[in-house]
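seq as requested:
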Amino acid sequence: MKKYLSIAANECDTYLDYTLFTLVAVYILQASPSEIGILGACYAIPFFFLSRIIGRYVDYCEINYFRMLMFIICISITFFVVYIDSIYYLYVILLIKVSCRVGLNVSTVKLNQDEFETKGFYEKIGYITNLARILVPIISVTANEYFGIGSIIIFSTVFSMLGLLSSFLLIKGNIKLENNKDKDDFDSICLDPRLIIRKNQNLKVLILSYIFSSISLYFSNDMISLFFKDITGEPISVGLVISSLGLGGVIGTKLSSYIIDKISIIQCYIFSISVNSIAFLIMGIVNDSLISVVGCYLIVSLTGVSSGMSFVIMKTGLRTLVDFERLGSVTGYIQKIASIVAISLPIIGGISADQIGIQATFIITSSMMFLVCINTLIKLKSLSLHKGNLNA
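struct tokens:
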């Protein structure tokens, strides 16, 4: 139970950060679409530089001591948001906090040692993540409305302290999540993840689909907050958007737990991408005369359904297709590759939104996701034919 408390603390603080940094950027610093794009890229830059290094490290280290260090840094840096008067200072603080998130997120996979509990483990995390998405943004924007930005910073510190305490209690209770490997075995543990991926065609197709769908998503995902700013003009829309994503995520988590036993991992992932494609297409064509603000929030919740499904599907797929001893290395490698997309695409999307409009970027995202679905279906069919030939 303590490991889920540690995960919950990290997830709650993550969504506090989304709300906090978005509120400061959009409503205090009056950031432009291109500056918001750079802010989105800041969420990915640490993943590019640190994911593979940390992935190799968590395959070898004692996880709970490492997680304690990450929570301590989070507690130390958040307070400086109070003094922000420039978007560039905001970028620096965000980069430091996201660096800690890299460590906490990559190390999470090592908290699931028993392969038989994998589906339940990630289903529980899915519920934790999306409940945090629903509740934390609403609480934080309400606190900001009545007590100011300082109240959000206090909440963030409390969550990080809770994560620190839960990791400490795991150590105190002698629940040591380590690999019991000698240092001489370090290189063998950290076999090049590219070799692991190449040898498993199902894993390769799943990862390629994930990367290309991420290209589509990051192109316009950060524009959603500006889309709702144009519609409502209210800071509370930031929290409601994230909460709508969380509500959809709960539904997506439950849906994935049902269909993952009915069809293959890759088929599940294709379905989740198609849901996102539909959601972004609708957001790209709606206007005030066609749909209400409430309707727009419901459309955004569809992207949450896709997100909730994708999380459980990807994590379960990786856990079942990759040996536990090398799971950290493979996870870190995937996040590093995906971060290249997450760094560049928000900037490209922000510049594009300046030129062609926010809704046009949504239509482009929808079209790209549709192409990813088609491409993955073709690769899946090819794998099935190859398997049939081998069995003939």
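The two ends are 48 Å apart (CA to CA).
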